[in-house]
Amino acid sequence: MNFRAADYLPWLVIGLLALFPLVESTFYMQLLTKVLIMAIFAMSLDLLVGYTGLVSFGHAAYFGLAGYALALMAPQYEAVSLWWSLPAAVGICALFALVTGVLVLRTRGIYFIMVTLAFAQMLFFIFHDTKIGGGSDGIYIYVKPTMKSGEVELANLEKIEHFYWLVLALMAATFLLLRRVLGSTFGRALVGIKVNEHRMRALGFPVFRYQLASFTLSGALAGIAGYLAAVQYGFVNPEILSWHQSGAVLMIVILGGMGTLYGSVIGAFAFVLLQEILSNQAWFGAAAKHWQLALGIFIMLVALYLPQGLAGLLRQSGRKAAAETTDE
Amino acid sequence: MSEAVSLGGEPILRTKGLTKQFGGLVAVSDVSLDLYVGEVHVVIGPNGAGKSTLTNLLSGDLPPTSGEVRFEGNDIAGCSADHISRLGIGRSYQKTNIFLPFTVFENCRLAAQSRTPHALRVFHRAGGYAEINRLAGEAMAAAGLAHRAERIAATLSHGEQRQLEIAMCLATQPRLLLFDEPLAGMGPHESQRMVELIKGLTADHAIMLIEHDMDAVFALADRLTVMVNGEVLESGTPEDVRSSPAVQLAYLGGEEILHD
Fold first, then answer.
1. Looking at chain A, which residue has its C-alpha nearest residue B132?
2. I want to staple B256 with a disulfide (CB 3.0 to 4.6 A). Which of A131, A144, A204, B251 is the partner?
3. pTM value?
4. 3-state DSSP call for residue B24?
5. Number of domains, chain B
């Protein structure tokens, strides 16, 4: 084979997704927007879990913080410019990740899971129990951010297809950025740390600094997803910081296949769509109420029979196809 | 080669009163030794004598309880392992410690990468640095693994994995090498190859070697230190150590060392 599927497939998928608004279904476009936002969120976590070997159970902290950042920065009845509010929200997440990272990266394994969860819960209760962000009711974002170049409106985010394209563009950008970063010496060092942290240290790598950089980048990218989620729903409440959210994104990464990046995108599709299908009362009647049970069973089956997630399944069939072509 | 010993010169590494306590247990007690470039300094002793702990103190894997470690004049006692590695001390491990899922080349490339300040160039492809690739290639060749470059490390034979361990050390361009039982678990043929490999490194490196294989010990040692219960029992040229009454007594005759 002169060209590798991995080189052109992402562009093909992005191209096809860009054409989706032609379908003209508000419901499905909103659903797909949600999928793509979760894909960004999951990729940011995959950087930690799949590439740096750090299992965080508090990633909703960065997701939710960006949402709250937007809600608190935006004037109540006026639009805020995306050009500064998005970088600001992402910057706040990066800073928060940098500070928490210094503390949580002193722990490993199960303790790391617990400490990341603890930080997310702290943030949850800060917003839940104080009036900063409207308490448990949260805050509405009445007007969507604007994207203007001078007086020209580049995109109107009140229009769902415009917002969809923005989310798709940011998902693609996140994927390409991470792929680039992971292919660099920095990325190789991260994987080295995941495989054998002790040896990396003996080889002269300042492991902590690498992990902190990865943790910060991961938090910042989760911030992009959280910002977009807040824009999509038009409100934020403490639920977006809850451990359910941290658990969901971790499940997406595991379901899709850790350490593959595109697995996170596949996982987001599978997770959000399954959630939608299994909770459809028209199809499952009373059982639809217990969709979480069915989803849980599905995830357990994947964990048991596809340890490399759905991406592993894809890679296996890809390898089989490649083997057949070379046989000819 | 024993002239190098008598030449004196400045040692590349010098420890003074180096001590490590784990609670009540003194694993390394008041060890003072000098390592010179061009010299293989072999440390022998029964299991639990503190040889590996001594290596860990020099490499920064463990901080000493007290005492001094001077490398090229600078006190490095208590420095972190990564810092010590960057100063120019490379080590191999008793238990093979490599990146099993990576290729042999990637193991060495990663090691070589640690010497270059490219950590912040996050957009440049990792494989695109000629200098890093050259260092990795040279290290593989020096350790006799050039023909295995694309093999996944986990699929190598035990002996080859030990060679890879050495290659990774070399790729970091150290001036002092600490080898912790590089021959452990090797067959006679593989051992012979490793002895040749280490011999070839002596000219421009200082080497501290921990070894149980007495044929290898006497084939390589310019200077020999015997440790017992964390203390240096005897240190000197192999001839001196062999004829030392203390060693004779401790081991009930030099031959006993062979069966240790």
1. A185
2. B251
3. 0.91
4. coil
5. 2
